[in-house]
Design goal:
The structure is a homodimer.
Chain A lengths: L2 E5 L6 H10 L3 E6 L10 E4 L7 H9 L3 E4 L14 H18 L4 E7 L9 E2 L11 H20 L2 E7 L1 E3 L8 H10 L4 E3 L5 E6 H13 L4 E5 L4 E3 H12 L5 E3 L11 E4 L2 H7 L7 H17 L1
Parallel strand pairs in A: 1-2, 1-4, 2-3, 4-5, 5-7, 6-14, 7-11, 8-10, 9-13, 10-14
Antiparallel strand pairs in A: 10-12
């Protein structure tokens, strides 16, 4: 039994990561700045890591052997450019220093495909250039570089899971999938863009399980956490139409696309598959159907 | 008259940078964690920027239009690998956020040739790869990336002066030039390595003046701050022998060199010369003679 601290544990990816770690038999300590339900299987710790003393106090309270750091600023529409990204760099460095000082052995942190220069179709950890175009991407990429340098110095293991695009239960309501699903389930029109851009979508439960698997492995460095399969956003939206039975409400092209959107963002998942040994469990159509069912239940309640 | 805040103002490079800014007619506010002499031309501010509240309080007190951020951990023999580098990343981000929030317009920060992958002889800002091999280099490189992303977002100007190798009055006693000069002036043997490695040495007064010139320019991004001329370390040591008249005390090869030392580190100074319009004033032999004279005076006192 390994004592694991998960930050951002009540978040979209943190939450299924906690579930996967519990299933793996670990002693899970979950930290969150938000209120959470009591759960006898998990030790919850309230912590706002942006407060200068919080990381030290949290680490002192838990003294984790492993750390899964998922907490970050993620407000839809704002996180790309927000100076809060820099506060999260600082918070993450404080957390890593405290973790190392307390004898921590292995840490996995959440990265992003926005660390890559968006200049190709398929992104491999081995050869895709790291040249983030956004403050969010720069903050994550710098945090990775600093954490890796610190870990090498301190002699601990660090891996970095680079998330691409996600969907699934618990996603913020204003994001694409929930907003379309909710409109369709309520019988309202759902205006969307042409949706030609191809993205790599992974079910969030798979993403959480992939982080748990990465943490339990001895793989170091950056690992794409994604499905490895590209789908046009329009196709994803059509799956939402099919799963709700209200596809006629979708208004393709009613919203203007963004000119600076890259045409394709697909992960090379060779490291995740072959080195971590992880395979996702949810095919897209089935995962979308689950997600629609989750929203249907929620809206009915 | 521009109100300028200089951090690390009592440091090796900060000190001559303050001198150059005063000569340029600016209103100079100098911040340092160390005690300093009273000086009617400069407003001194005591600040330990590693304290979480210090940056905000300092910026609030000064409300600078320009910022020259030279403060960092620099203890000889320790700074390459120290976790304190990460605390300086955090401190620098706090400082930049406070500077921007208070209406600051232009900032220049101190970088290092250790940001580059040491894989060539001459390093240009335009095409040399950024792949630091040390925690210090990673911390500086990440700070640059984050500061540039933040500045682009906030609409302020940022430049980044990449220092190579320095010599001159005020250098820490344990470093190469002072330790050899002091030995020779005291009539003691000075054991040194073979000194085949070629480095770009700049007089610290020139480095300070170059930072002041960069701050007063409208150049953005990374600029090498160096002489553009390579000299073998052995040749530099021979100049010390000549300037002291005690060259016979130098024991070349008595110390083992480091196996991982790159053969050559020379700056391409095209940006500094052509875009900033700066030319160093000290030729090496003359600058070394000045430095020896400074130590002679100090040892006699």
């Amino acid at each position: 039994v390994t004592r694991v601290l998960v930050t951002g544990a009540s978040g979209f990816v943190g939450s299924p990561a906690v579930t996967a770690l519990l299933a793996g038999g670990h002693e899970v300590h979950a930290a969150s700045s938000r209120p959470h339900d009591a759960d006898t299987a998990i030790s919850w710790h309230a912590a706002d890591l942006l407060q200068p003393q919080a990381a030290g106090q949290l680490i002192e309270a838990v003294r984790p052997e492993w750390l899964l750091h998922m907490a970050w600023y993620a407000e839809h529409g704002r996180f790309w450019d927000s100076p809060l990204n820099l506060e999260w760099v600082e918070a993450t460095l404080r957390l890593m220093r405290a973790f190392i000082a307390a004898g921590g052995r292995r840490a996995v942190l959440a990265g992003t495909c926005a660390e890559y220069a968006w200049d190709r179709e398929i992104y491999s950890e081995h050869d895709a250039a790291l040249a983030p175009a956004t403050l969010y991407g720069a903050a994550k990429n710098s945090t990775r570089a600093l954490t890796e340098a610190l870990a090498a110095e301190a002699g601990i293991d660090v891996a970095w899971g680079r998330l691409f695009f996600l969907y699934g239960p618990g996603e913020a309501q204003t994001r694409l999938v929930p907003s379309v699903v909710r409109a369709l389930l309520c019988g309202e029109p759902a205006p969307v863009t042409e949706g030609d851009q191809v993205r790599d979508f992974m079910h969030v439960a798979d993403a959480g399980a992939a982080f748990a698997a990465l943490l339990a492995s001895d793989v170091r460095g950056a690992v794409n956490i994604a499905s490895g399969t590209g789908v046009a956003v329009r196709q994803l939206v059509e799956l939402l139409g099919a799963a709700t039975g209200r596809g006629e409400l979708i208004q393709v092209g009613a919203l203007a696309g963004r000119a600076d959107e890259p045409a394709s963002l697909i992960a090379d998942v060779g490291r995740l598959r072959d080195e971590v040994g992880f395979a996702p469990r949810h095919a897209l159509a089935e995962g979308i159907a689950d997600t629609v069912a989750w929203w249907r239940e929620r809206l009915a309640a």
